[in-house]
Amino acid sequence: MKSFLERIVNPSEIKSLSYEQLEILALELRERIIEVMSINGGHLASNLGVIELTIALHKVFDSPDDKFIFDTSHQVYAHKILTGRNDKFSTIRKHKGLSGFSSPAESPHDHFYAGHAGTALSLALGVAKARDLNKEDSYVIPVLGDAALTCGLTHEALNNVPKNMKNFILILNDNAMAISKNVGAITGILSRFFNHPMSNKLYGEIESLLAKIPGCGELIASGGSKLKESLKNLISTAPFFEQYGLSYIGPIDGHDIKKMSSALEAAKNLQTPCIIHALTTKGQGMPNAIKNPTTYHGVKPFDLETGKFLPNPTVRPTFPKVFGKHMLEMAEKDEDIVVLTPAMPAGSCLTPLMKKYPERCLDVGIAEGHCVTFAGGLAYKSNKKIVCSIYATFLQRALDNLFHDVCLQKLPVVFALDRGGIAGGDGATHNGIYDISFLNAMPNMVIAQPRNGHLLKEVLESAFTYNQPVAVRYPNLPTEEFELPIQRRLLGKGEVLIKGEQIAIIALGHKCETALEVRALLENEGINATVIDPVFVKPLDKELLYRVFMTHPYIVTLEEHAVNAGLGQIINQFAIENGFNESQILNIGIPEVYLEHGSHSELTKEAKLDAESVKTRIHEHYFVKPATYATI
């Protein structure tokens, strides 16, 4: 006999199941997600926490006519499975498989690509307005995690919710967590004060006190339940949302399918926009994930029986681990160092630093713009050494803050740009392949990309001496960490890694390793290439480049960045400005496409950035005799 999960091809089939059957379906979904995540890795704890809520949504509404718009959308695994993708779920985050986020290319049940937090409410308001203009009557249901309320865009959207908008239901999935534990005043508003033992003790003490009033105390105390309710209303979360014109329903147990379904049914009949506040547990159904929700947020493969992560196939540290470890060492030696991050202390490997120096390692929540401007304020006329640790794609969200509040002011903030390059399983929303383009346009900005962990340490230590904004970009890849003395890196000075003749390969950061492999392949064909590491994209080592162009007629640039606006274009401009018009330059980088998800090696090959592909392109471009064409 087929399981309930195997029988569901269309989410409408959920409607005929009893609540007892839906509970079994929830267990089957949980087992399916855990099983696949143990092999593929991916977002685990967040998806385990939203299973019953997702079932209730499909029980009550008619997707895709009724539109579920998930914030960040890293909690859509149950939704994907229930909307006809169970047979492909084992391919999630794999090359050419299902995306780990919502993806309109996969299914009409997914409406937007969404990998960054805070977008759902604004998108949903736009969809609902278009619906109303078209005189349609479907429901629009944005699903937000409580972490989205630390994001400014969500508050801007809340301020614009029309008071008379019908068929608009906001779901707040409150698990008290983002990726790491939520921070800021909003978490106080969403706290579970009334479920705390101390709160119940307070109510009991008040009732006992009232009972002692002569004559009428017992009568007053007997109304204790009403008193308790009044106290709840006094400091509940309802007024916060009601001031925005949202009718408030909750809080509701988000793991109780029947209660969630009843609340959703009630919300359908409201003539105004409303919010349903669901309380959930991140990692629900897996003890390890409940105990360690941050660790099990984004998981690598693990043992299905024990839940313990499988050994790392490489013993080499990653660039982020080198960064986190060295920032702790620097902070131990220098009390003026202050590090900021927008909700990514774990991903950026800053947890040990935050634990040891909580006053000097600050998580500001999912507030990238605030993080950058806050960093500028900290750096203003102070003796503090400010590091803003932020993913390359997250910095995109703070472009104006970067320009207006740091670069224009020429404030010496060091930006540690994590995930600079191909993001692997996270895909198009997370590929850090555009930052050089906008950073290069900023006056007063230094851009560096170390090729290994040791060079990363040297650039980080040297960056504070440049006395201007500095961006140090690096990928989430294994690297070498040499036991060598830390030397100061002179601003704008590159390196010749190996000398050759005729052709020079200028490779950025970790692509130097690829360039050396390409050189070895070319050497088999009698071609000896020079390999250059510029270290700095801005300012360029013009003296070094001048010598390279004078001695090499063929130049190749190699980078894991969008080729249209990265190192290659910068080198092209250098050649034009310095009169090297006869030089032949081949720019190799990521073409003008949105790279999807997959392993780093698979995506590298797809973009033709692996050593064999680069060698072939160089050989065909420079050393294969071009075809001749007849004159018209």
Describe the 3D structure.
This protein is α/β, with parallel strands linked by helices and 632 residues long. 39% of the residues lie in helices and 15% in strands. The chain has 26 helices and 19 strands. The strands form 4 sheets. The protein has a 7-stranded mixed beta sheet, sandwiched between helices. Helix 6 packs parallel to helix 7 (152-158). The radius of gyration is 28 Å and the shape is globular. The relative contact order is 0.08. The model is unreliable at 188-203 and 627-632 (pLDDT under 50).
Could you name the ranges where pLDDT drops below 50 across 5 or more consecutive residues? Answer: 188-203, 627-632
What is the spatial order of strands in the main beta sheet? 9-8-10-11-13-12-17
Average pLDDT works out at 90
Shape: globular
- Structural class given helices, strands, pairing? alpha/beta
Distance between the termini: 73 Å
Find the count of extended strands (DSSP E, 2+ residues). Answer: 19
Share of residues in helices? 25-40%
**How big is the Rg?**
28 Å
Specify the biggest β-sheet: 7 strands, mixed
**SS element count, helices:** 26
Give structural attributes:
632 residues, alpha/beta, five-stranded parallel β-sheet, 26 helices, globular
